[in-house]
Amino acid sequence: MRMTAMAFTAVVAVLFVWFVANRMVSEDAIGMHEMIRPAGRPMVQLMLFAIAGSILTVSLYLSDTRGAIEFEPDGVFDIISLVCARIAMIMVALIVIVMFYEVVSRYVFARPTLWANELSLWIASFVFLLAGQYAMQQRSHIRIYVIYDMMPRWIQKSSDILSLFLIWFFTFAMVWGGFDDAMRRFLRMETFGTAWDPPIPGIVKPAILIIICLVALQALSNIISDWNKAPEHLAVDDIDKTEIENIRRTLEK
Predict the structure, then answer these.
(1) Which of 193, 226, 179, 209 lies closest to 72, judged by CA?
(2) Measured by CB atoms within 10 angstroms of the end CB, which terminus of the chain is less buried, N or C?
């Protein structure tokens, strides 16, 4: 997987250099406006395929590593969530690159872009969605344990089932109420209505429903995985010594 990821990344780098070189010698060269309109442009299609392949393969490779405070995966849905989490992490880096390019272009060369703000918004929407799935897999959503800890185990399990029911009810309501609208936006690939005009509504709206379903499946996977385990959480006064040590080492670098 590492070699595949490196190969895709190398293709992306070579194509990027090719696009930049063409842009420097020709005003009719492919730019960001054409990058979101790949029909009839094989080089653009190849570039988008290479970018997608690079992000996916790097995410698969990175999903084999674990942070000191991460839960170990237990089942196929945990693995999917970890891969999605790595995609979100890579996307954060992409947002930084896009905004850095915009700052340099605007304040150094006095040539601001028409696409940097919208592209970062587009990427950030997926970071937000995928981070929610990762938070569910890591059991890191905010929870109040004051009453939960006083319950016997069978009532705790009943509370977990009730929470799962509410998550699935919310998911059903979202899909039921938003499917037709999301499908219409996707089929006509609704755009943002700006100068660059990316199809943000046409892609993000269906993605919301898809990732909400993945979050609901992850919640079901969590309750199955944790059914015979004792509750694990950090109380208010507990200190995560591992996290403190990691922060200390980071600050010492």
Answers:
(1) 226
(2) C
In the three-class reduction of DSSP (H, G, I as helix; E, B as strand; rest coil), residue 132 is classed as helix
Concatenated DSSP letters for 163-212?
Answer: HHHHHHHHHHHHHHHHHHHHHHHHHTT----SSS---HHHHHHHHHHHHH
Q: Is the pLDDT of residue 148 over 60?
A: yes
Which residue carries 């492919």 as its tokens?
30
Confidence of residue 233 (pLDDT cuts 50, 70, 90): low
Q: Which residue in 136, 131, 130 sits closest to 221, CA to CA?
A: 136
Measure the CA–CA gap between 28 and 19, rounded to whole angstroms.
11
CA distance 62 to 56: 10
| Three-class secondary structure of residue 28 per DSSP | coil
As given in the structure block, the two tokens for residue 147 are 């009453």
DSSP state of 147: T
